Amino acid sequence: MLRFFIRRALLAVLTLIAISITTFALFFAGPADPASIMCGTKICDQRTHDRINQVLELDKPITTQYVQYMKGIFVGRQIGDIECPAPCLGVSFRTREPVLNILGRAAPVTISIVLGAAVIYLIVGVSLGMLSAIRRGTILDRIAVGFSLTFASMQIFFLGLLLVYIFVYGLGLLPRPAYYPISEDPLKWAGGMLVPWITLGLINSASYARFSRAQMLETLSEDYVRTAWAKGASRRRVHLKHAFRAAVTPIVTLAGIDLGLQIGGLVITESTFSMLGMGRQAVLAVLNLNLPIIMATVLISAVAVVIANVVVDMLYAVIDPRVRLS
Amino acid sequence: MVHRMTSPSGAPASTATGPYLQVNDLKVRFTTEDGVVKAVDGVSFAVERGRTLGIVGESGSGKSVTSLTVMGLHNRKRTQITGQILVGGRNITAMTDDQIRRLRGRDMAMIFQDPLSALHPFYKIGGQISEAYRIHHKVPKSIAKTRAIEMLDRVGIPQPQKRAEQYPHEFSGGMRQRAMIAMALVNNPDLLIADEPTTALDVTVQAQILDLLEDLQREFNSAVVLITHDLGVISQVADDVLVMYAGRVAEYGSAEQVLRAPQHPYTWGLLASVPSLHGNADEDLLPIKGNPPSLINVPSGCAFHPRCRYAMLNGGPCDIEVPELLRLSLSDEPGHVVACHLPERQRKTVYEQEIASVGVAI
What we know:
- The complex is a heterodimer.
- By secondary structure, chain A is an all-alpha fold.
- Chain A has helices spanning 2-29, 34-39, 46-55, 62-75, 99-134, 139-152, 156-170, 186-220, 223-231, 235-263, 267-272, 278-288, 291-319, 321-325; strands at residues 77-79, 82-84.
- A two-stranded antiparallel ribbon of chain A has the order 1-2.
- The longest helix of chain A has 36 residues, at 99-134.
- The mean pLDDT of chain A is 88.
- By secondary structure, chain B is an alpha/beta fold.
- Chain B folds into 3 domains: 1-107 and 189-238, P-loop containing nucleotide triphosphate hydrolases (Rossmann fold); 115-188, no CATH class; 263-358, no CATH class.
- Chain B has 13 helices and 12 strands.
- Chain B has helices spanning 2-5, 63-71, 97-103, 115-118, 125-136, 141-154, 160-163, 173-185, 203-220, 231-237, 255-260, 265-272, 344-355; strands at residues 21-32, 35-47, 52-56, 79-87, 90-91, 108-111, 191-195, 223-228, 240-245, 248-254, 326-327, 337-338.
- In chain B, the strands form 2 sheets. In chain B, strands 6-7-8-3-9-10-12-11 form an 8-stranded mixed beta sheet, with helices on both faces. Chain B has a 4-stranded antiparallel beta sheet with strand order 2-1-4-5, covered by helices on one side.
- In chain B, helix 5 runs parallel beside helix 8 (173-185).
- The longest helix of chain B has 18 residues, at 203-220.
- Chains A and B meet through helix 9, helix 10 and helix 14 of A and helix 3, helix 5 and helix 8 of B.
């Protein structure tokens, strides 16, 4: 068991190194010229261009830049006149602000959306799916399937703006979506997050309901569920203790990987509600060829996905005794 | 018909209460998109306490559906049932879901074919057995656990204390089936239905499991229904044999009658397709040609006639009329009934000349 996780952790580190090298290489392989962009719209004269490159240390060989970047993460580094303590993810090409500070502002926004929405879609989606599997063929099942189809085919920006239009501006039932740090005022934080949570929650509920319904239907037809019926177990016991327990395993996997992916950024959700989270920050960085921010967002997303995978593996071992053995 | 109501081998006079399980003219139909499936079409049989009925037939002959219906494990919404199923005198077909649930696992229990898939992969063996006990007995967990260990010991699992704490995947196939049997018997059921209990096991383990079932039956004096396609198993443990084809009874009698003096060409086919240790080694087996029919479009007349070598031998009504289940008239075999249009004399000749020599596993 322990060896399994050590192996997983080592593999994760290798994955991260590979990703960092690839991102770095891709950036320089493309026709990237951050200096021209920073120069501004005016025609850039060669001297300014060179000076920018020098300040950004873009004139050094790519290997040196990579080594310095990686070194910075562990021991910190000095970039021009800016002190960047470890873990240093570089400084923004544009604002000269350490990337860590920028992402330190963006990450809570994304994490707030991700976790709140997850609570909604895991509860609503999974229970809806389970219920419609148990009541297969009934009106409730049909309504649930209809709900899934409707929301699964909806776009975040459409549903989000519709909710804002109706519930915020029309009926005035929900507060305007905005991000306030939770440390300042938890109530205000939750209020501002409500619309994004509901939007993302509903849309993801649709796919989770469909997935859980399929899983539950499959386990309901398993032999061991029939055994539970044959024992004389009550409907409730058969459904919860025997079928649900088995059906929930793949849902845990899916949820873990989804969460990991979403931490990396929710571009569309963040853009819809004008929140500057990881996703939007990454898009801006790509548009500006702001390498340090691109690197950092890619790496952080990768770390999130890798950690999510390891957590899922551990949960699996807790849920399924067959995994513990191998 | 009176002979349908009692088991062929006859109840000993002492059991005044009659058979524990009695099925009268059971018909089970499912509605599917392709049409109505007549899974069971007028089946009657009876099993007394302490006796074993073997139900034989190919896949799709309705034997499993019959047993699931007795347990009330069929899908109620899509299934239409007529006829009577009496378990200890109570009519299952007239009961509510909840009433059947109370009998299930307590008065009647079931063992399934593949013990690996029939045991829950996430729960410990001991827990699964004690759960079966606790559903029907209001006792603390510790008592149910002791009971589970006791049962594991009874079905011949070594170190039951330790084994109870293990998961199904840590058991071998034979041990799993033993655990399954322990689970089925934990409430001392009066009726035990075993649906192909040895099919998924290898031959040496099969014999052990059958021995165990026989032992336990003697100990608990339960009525046993054993569903199988393996005539070897039938000859080993069954007192009575019911041969099913396309949801109907082809032949029904004591094991002695059906295996030694089979009357129905389908029974002949089943017997002649099993190699024998005692038969002539050079003789070819005579498999039944073709496949079992779809239960949505059952052939007209005798459902077996398209596959029967002897159909129309007498110019008879095989393809028009459904044969009635009748007693034998020539030989004195009480309780032996067969549904075949061939005259009994002709059947006897054919059997003696063509079938008896092919061996038969018995």
